[in-house]
From TrEMBL:
Protein name in the entry: DUF1415 domain-containing protein
One Pfam short name: DUF1415
Organism: Halomonas nitroreducens
InterPro entries: DUF1415 (IPR009858)
Source taxonomy: Bacteria, Pseudomonadati, Pseudomonadota, Gammaproteobacteria, Oceanospirillales
Length: 183
């Protein structure tokens, strides 16, 4: 353990640069890191209504700031339990639809204990969606569509990532994630 706590935003930036970009988990992230078009926002999710309001505020921010391609809402407090996280994620997705953002923005989800349905808890594949802190990734669908249109065989990305995670191994992946949290 380190002497001082690791900032959730600093850990998330490091995760994006060293893991997401470093292992090409998302082949489009490197461009956005280079352009400095990723917004990082710390959200205390101990009050679900407040967290959902912050999500809407980020939609409005993206509406008003086309130079920002995407926002990572780092849910630094209140959602350590994966099931609680999934419950609030469901509400967040429904809120986007209710507020007319379906087709404009989508949420990708990340959590330190992320587990794909049907996967073993310790399966390396889960690390494609494991992050230092619970997180909602608010993406512009138009930007995602543009990126996918210029990427050869985007349907192969999940399988390629599964193979990469398997090659890296669960122990190495878990140690890397723990190090980002300062553990």
């Amino acid at each position: 353990m380190t002497d001082s706590p690791v900032s959730p935003l600093d850990a998330t930036r490091a995760w994006v640069e060293t893991f997401v970009v470093g292992h090409e988990v998302c082949p489009f992230a490197g461009r956005e890191v280079a352009r400095d078009s990723i917004r990082y926002v710390d959200v205390d999710a101990t009050d679900p209504a407040t967290a959902l309001m912050r999500l809407m505020e980020e939609c409005w921010h993206l509406d008003d700031h086309p130079e920002t391609e995407t926002t990572l809402l780092v849910l630094s407090e209140g959602l350590a339990d994966f099931d609680d996280y999934l419950d609030l994620l469901g509400l967040a997705e429904a809120l986007l639809v209710e507020q007319g953002y379906e087709g404009g923005y989508q949420l990708a989800s990340f959590h330190p204990d992320y587990q794909f349905d049907g996967e073993a808890e310790d399966a390396p594949r889960n690390f494609t969606n494991r992050s230092p802190w619970p997180m909602w990734h608010l993406l512009r669908e138009a930007g995602l569509e543009r990126a996918l249109a210029h990427y050869p065989d985007p349907e192969a990305i999940p399988e390629r990532n599964r193979e990469r995670m398997q090659a890296l191994g669960r122990e190495r992946l878990a140690a890397s994630l723990a190090a980002l949290r300062g553990e």
